[in-house]
Every structure is written in structure tokens, then in C-alpha cells.
Amino acid sequence: QYQFSLNVWVGIIGDCLIGPHFLPLRLNGGSYCQFLEEKLPILLEDVPLHIRHQMWFMHDKAPAQFSLNVRQHLNAVYPNCWIGRRGPQL
Predict the structure, then answer these.
(1) Does residue 23 sit within a domain?
(2) Which of 51, 52, 86, 87 sees the fewest Cβ atoms within 10 Å?
(3) Model-level pTM?
(4) DSSP state, 86?
(5) Which residues make Cβ contacts (< 8 Å) with residue 71, sequence separation at least 6?
(6) Three-state SS for 12?
(7) How many structural domains compose the chain?
């Protein structure tokens, strides 16, 4: 047997799943921010605009999600509507 791991992003909106999107195994602030800027908008294209305007973004406390560039991006795209370490909510 071999041990392996995956980094997978999946969104939940209502009763729908968005994704999955497979992230790099060695996730850092730069690669996570690149996902948020380049890949996430594509994944959200089919979500109606009125729902996207009411959406909240939540992530856990992984170091890549705590980096300054990620927090700055989330503050710009989801102002006061994201949950995470040093975020505006919780």
C-alpha cells in the first residue's frame, strides 16, 4: 500500500456542489491566491449573479489561506463576507 494525499477545493451553494478543483500538493499563499484569482471565477460562472452577490466565502486555518495576499484578495472580492483566520467575520 502507498500513502497519498490530495488538496481539493469544493464549494457548496444551497444543494449544489461547485467543483471539485484539485490544488497543488504543496499549497502556499501564492498558489492559493492564483486559484482564487484565476480558477474560482471560472468555477462560479454558472452561479447566478444574484446568488454570487449574497455569497460568503469560508475556509479553514491552513497557512496558505492565511497569507497576506490571500486576505487582501478576499477583502477586495468578498468585502466583509469571508470567514477565516484574521478575516472580517469570526
Answers:
(1) no
(2) 86
(3) 0.83
(4) T
(5) 84, 86, 87
(6) strand
(7) 1
